[in-house]
Amino acid sequence: MAQIPGMIKGLAVTFNTMMRTFKNGSNTVQYPREKEAPPIRARGVIALHEDNCTSCMLCSRSCPDWCIYIEAHKELAPPRREGGKPRAVNKLDRFDIDYALCMYCGICVEVCPFDALFWSPEYEYSEPSIADLLHDKSKLGEWMETVPAAPELEVGADKKKK
Amino acid sequence: MVNQLSSPAETTPVVDTVRDQVLADVQATLGAVVVDSLVKPGDDMWIRVSTLSWNESMKKLQAMGFDYFCFLSAIDWMPSPYGRGEDDPTEPAPERDTTIRPGYTGGDTRMQLLVRLVNSRTHVGINVKTDVPNEVYTVDSIANVFAGANWHEREAHEMFGIGFVGHPDLRNMYLPTDFEGFPMRKDFPLLARMVKPWPGIVDVEPLPGGDAESEEAS
Amino acid sequence: MLSLLAVEIPYWGQSLLRVLGGLVAVLLPAGTIVYVFLFKMMSFMQSRLGPMEAGPYGSMQLFAEVGKWLQKEDIQPDNADKRIFRMAPIVVLMSTFLLVAVVPFGPDAWFTDFETGVFYALAVSSISVLGILMAGWSSANKYSLLGGLRAAGQLIAYELPMVLAVIGVVIQAETMNLQQIVVAQNAGSIFGSDIVGNPYVLTQFVGFVVFMIAVQAELTQAPFDMPIAESELVSGYMTEYSGFRFLIFFIGEFATAGVFAMIASTLFLGGWGVPFSWFGWTTMDSVDNWMNVAGPLIVFTKMMVLVFLIMWIRFSYPRFREDQLQRFAWKVLIPISLANIMVTAVLKVAF
Amino acid sequence: MTILNDPVSAKLGDRAQLSYIASQAADARLNVELETEGMTLNIGPQHPATHGTLRIIARLDGEQVLWAEPSCGYMHRGYEKLTEVRSFPQVTSLINRIDWLGSFANEVPFILAAEKLMGVEAPPRAQWIRTILFELSRIANVSLFLGDLGVQLGAITPVFMAFRDREYVLNLIESATGGRFHPNFDRIGGLKDDLPAGWIDETKVVMKKLRNFCDEIESLLFGNEIFQSRTRGIGVIPRDVAMQYGLSGANLRASGVDWDLRRDQDSSMAWNKVDFKVWTHPDGDSFARCWVRLQETREATKIVDQLLDGIPAGPVMAKVPKIIKVPEGEAWVSTENPLGEMGYYVVSRGDSGPFRVKIRSASFNNISITPWLLRGVYVPDIITILASLYFILGDIDR
Fold first, then answer.
1. Does pLDDT of A1 surpass 70?
2. Contacting residues of B for A66, CB less than 8 Å apart
3. Is there a contact between C148 and C137 (Cβ–Cβ < 8 Å)?
4. Is A61 in CB contact (< 8 Å) with chain B?
5. Measuring CA to CA, how many Å separate B36 from each of B66, C140, D150, D383?
6. pLDDT reading at D6 higher than 70
7. How far lies B126's CA from each of B47, C189, D259, in Å?
8. Is D308 exposed, middle or buried (0-12, 13-18, 19+ CB in 10 A)?
9. What is the CATH number of the domain that holds B77?
10. Structural domains in chain B (count)
11. Number of compact structural domains in chain A
């Protein structure tokens, strides 16, 4: 029958794949021991640079999921110049992101006018209890060291941005 | 390339001969049934037909070449009395303007049906609207014209509470059978936005005894 | 096997040895098949490694799985016909054990030496249909019922081409004793050349193909896995089974694959024997004793080759529809095997 | 040849006529009192063939379906309502989740509609990158379909091949946008960011791999006679029925309608800058639908290749005010998404958020034909037909 070749070809495909896996290894990685590095831009976890935060509430207000909770108070800080008046600055009391609610859309990082929020590609922070997914400002601050520098842009990109 | 922000009113009006011609044809076919019409050159066209001849005009439109049924839906033109749920629950609810203001091609009622048909040969689409009578919220079904409207009408039925006369099977599609209320109506509150206060309401606590002038520092 | 032991063994001892031997002959191939083909070959065909954690290269995975299954809760549906529900997996596995009883592993290494071994094997193999039908019916589940009925229809339809395909072998070997069939193949010759003996895969190639297709269907492996059909019937007759009852089905599936492959290798590939001309043997009696040790290994190797074919096809093909399968059995396979019988008979008489 | 003296069947081909007869017979048997009781089979909500939670209630006579009715709503999230309480930038992150396999493609029509209302147009570089990402999400989506098709039909290997090669595409999307499944990369007036360095070369390599994948799937699945006998002549949708039900995408093109919004619609996207073939198939059966999708995946890799060579230099963001308020008006924009025509009817009231968004998703229309289509088929064919219609649950229920 002229029908045979289609089925034989199918067998050849699986056989070739098997041989390729023998020769070149598999396409999967043994996760806990081998890890694939996520790309620089990967949205893994949000890191907070607390010194930059002025508690302007923009991130909290633009969050589509209402998962950023900020509390702050005003405080007198020493003046910038000698002999100046003491300045009133906003001091963060609480900056929580509830990762159980977060959709990882990145709007908060984008709207932040003072570069206080960053994306880090870190992804291993699952918790056995859902309440532990609420990261407070110290935990968010710890993620800062995993934040990579922004990648180089492709040819033809408008470099003047930012 | 238009890079600047410019409102649609400022763009130079273009004459869209194709759509004007189609509109003329539609008006000729449907006659006085067309209450209002609008052509946005190079963009799209809208007509509003009278409620009583809804089914009839669909048949005529299908016969004149608009044979592709794209979607059917409804619009509740009453602005929501709840806003976005970003109010402070401790304060009294703010007054919101809930006057009904229809969109393109006007309208006399709160609810409007919207159907989009496309001519499969010329690929010109047309948005057909019709008023849904207030309080009664009932129109003729068009499931016998476009079989695909069947599910869309079921959806509109459960979401907006619009009855479709002559629809074969107006069961709920998405909601439980005993669900009360019509979720897509604007006066149906979105509970997810009611059960907890907006985190954005919170403001920075002022300095104890501090004055308002020192705000500029931040 | 027994004559290897010089000592006289009482009857209960012989029986015990036979039971142990049967367990080994069924479970060892089953375990090997699961590991080599299900875990590793399938994974490699899909560009992945398969289980790697339990034991070196995941070789102990099956034991881990068995341990897991044994720990699981034994769930029986409320409306199930409980007694039949419990019996069904055992009936399925039983047919496998009964089947292995007639497979010869060496000149003296056999469990039973049936004069009508072929007849017996084909009869016993259809007992599993009963078990599957019982499982499908007693589960009180529509998917199971559909699966069970599909299985019944399918297995009965494929029983026939299988029987008819074997008849060619029986005609050629002039015996229904599997041991004799092995001898006939290895001592035989094709057109005077006895360099490879006369494995019936060469002279009975059509019969071999039909037999293997029927085996594929009997084992309910893709492309004939409609009774299981994960994507339609959600495992068909096995839907309601969990824990160790599922384990029995699972072992049964692969053990049966192994045993059927053994029978196929006995019927078509020369079984435990090597071509007798290599060592200057002529008859059964002149075969050296060491074949009793080498024989099982040879059968095992041939079985693995055949199971590789079965599994390779299983992992590559989509499945038929039930009616297409029936049509294929009745309109294609059965006429072909009938023609095969006719040609074989004519040639047998002619030569 | 006309088997039935019937106006509907007269228009159909032979194969279509046979399936039409089967469906008519099913109707007839449903209407007369049955001597046997028949059986109602619930396929789903949790069932491997419904990839998601679709439930199909099928009335069976033996294995033949007399009557079948999908029951949706297990994943209804009320996106149309949710958009009303969100601002325009927030909506994008939401509608990502409608068709979760080709997320980026969901954002585009909405953003285009908002841009239309605002009178903004994204700079050319943004349009090209948008189009590339759009096609990449099509490849990611449809390649999974091709693998999944195998699973639905009982072949287990294709799906792993699909996962293997889709991974490359997802990596590309992630390295460009940061989001693997939900990019949220499209902005009113352009894109969030430019591409990272080296992305173009990487994409070209991946496109070669994907074409190879298409070849493998073709010989593994489409060339297989069992596959063909399972899909050919099954679930035939004639042209006019497809039109009435508003089918779109490959389902419509498999019924012989030569209509692709990428080609036939004015759009600021870069599709008119490349040449590609719109594949159609005259049969309208399951095989035709699958085959058209396979060809479209191939075509998409070629589109991406062509676009990569011609990305213009420049900014990726037009000048847009920081706080977006969209002027009053109504706009409809639809694009040719992986699943079919996806469109948004956006009504704005000059607010920062939309007043009403009607989401016209492809799967809702595509699946609404099933009660008509499933009459008279066998149980395994339900699976084939559903697989070939290709729906994503999030796209049906929204």
1. no
2. 196, 198-200
3. yes
4. yes
5. 19, 61, 52, 46
6. no
7. 8, 82, 17
8. middle
9. 3.30.460.80
10. 1
11. 1
